[in-house]
Amino acid sequence: MSSITEILHSVPVDPLTGAIAVPVYQTSTFVQEAPGVNKGYDYARTGNPTRAALEKIVAQLEKGDAGFAFATGLAAIDAVVKLFSAGDEIIAVDDIYGGAYRLFTHVYQKLGITVHYVDTTDAENILPFINERTKCIWLESPTNPTLKVSDIRHICALAKTIGALVVVDNTFAGPLAQTPITLGADIVIHSATKYLAGHSDLLAGLVITAKPELSEKIKFIQNATGGILGPWDCFLTIRGIETLELRYLQQSTTALVIAEYLQQHPLVDVVHYPGLASHKNHAIACDQQNGLFGGVVSFSLRDDTQEAAHTFVTQTKYFKLAESLGGVKSLLCHPATMTHASVPRERRLIAGVQDSLIRLSCGIERTEDLIQDIEQALSAISFTKKNLSYANS
Ligand SMILES: *Cc1c(COP(=O)(O)O)cnc(C)c1O
Predict the structure, then answer these.
(1) Are 321 and 332 in contact (CB under 8 A)?
(2) Which of 73, 225, 331, 378 could make an S-S bridge to 361, C-beta 3.0–4.6 Å?
């Protein structure tokens, strides 16, 4: 297995100039010496050297056969769904990314692809939905925003027995914590917008395939449908990956400290973080996540109201109120009124998204500054009448 050092050095310095940074080949086409005689590139939708460098790096990071870069995470998801045909069925994790749910429901359902949603933290729940049309099991682990963890190895073994592909959206764990292909998955997806690019300054998506036969299919779809990542964003994503390990270690360390801090705070009710021993799926998370649990923590308040949550999220100074995660600057959001606003309240509550649930994405700022920021925001809500009793208890 290659270390990230080996992987980053596997892209040779520019043979023309010795440039140590991968050059941005901002070109649409490549001049041919004679028809069909070229230097490996003919048209930039099909291939571009900057994109090829990124794709080579991510294939190795995820221990796959090949990587493919797309304009956004959703474009990457869309390319993978195009492997399937009308009549095929997918079994997906129930708290799947909202954009994937929207794509499945409002675009692919009318094209004849059916998706069943189940709580995959218990693999038994998958069994009743298996039939001869089942072509894929679609996982996210940990999920958003309650960080539920599924046993990827176990579910991949189950999928093999029915000849279904396993797709894992690995955005939340990231490749340093978890490489689903080594657990048996066929395809890994990333919203590289998050940890991999890591600076909240671009959108990007990745598909990594486990075997050459699948690589050929995704390569065909990428070229045929054209949702590729442009060379400048490929360059920035490579630059992000060069500091991925430093950032991810810092984010994971801070998130654990914050999760432990929140857990003992009198105003806080439930804390979700796979690195906490109290997390329902802690054992399986330890087993498949390399001892790293990422920068996202979510928690609810004892005063379980949207008002209390809104007080908190508008009171933080360093945690900025915005959707997204994984960047160098800390962010926070209130799922019930932001990412999950379109989900009916009863369904939200079943999924563990309480009215006061707050999701933090820890950046790389100093841990003690972030703790202090949370402390002062919690003290703002403790001044509301109802909370004084909790604060004093
Ligand atoms: C953000 C996200 C996506 C979508 O990625 P975009 O780059 O925003 O299109 C897909 N899956 C997960 C788990 C995400 O967090």
Answers:
(1) yes
(2) 331
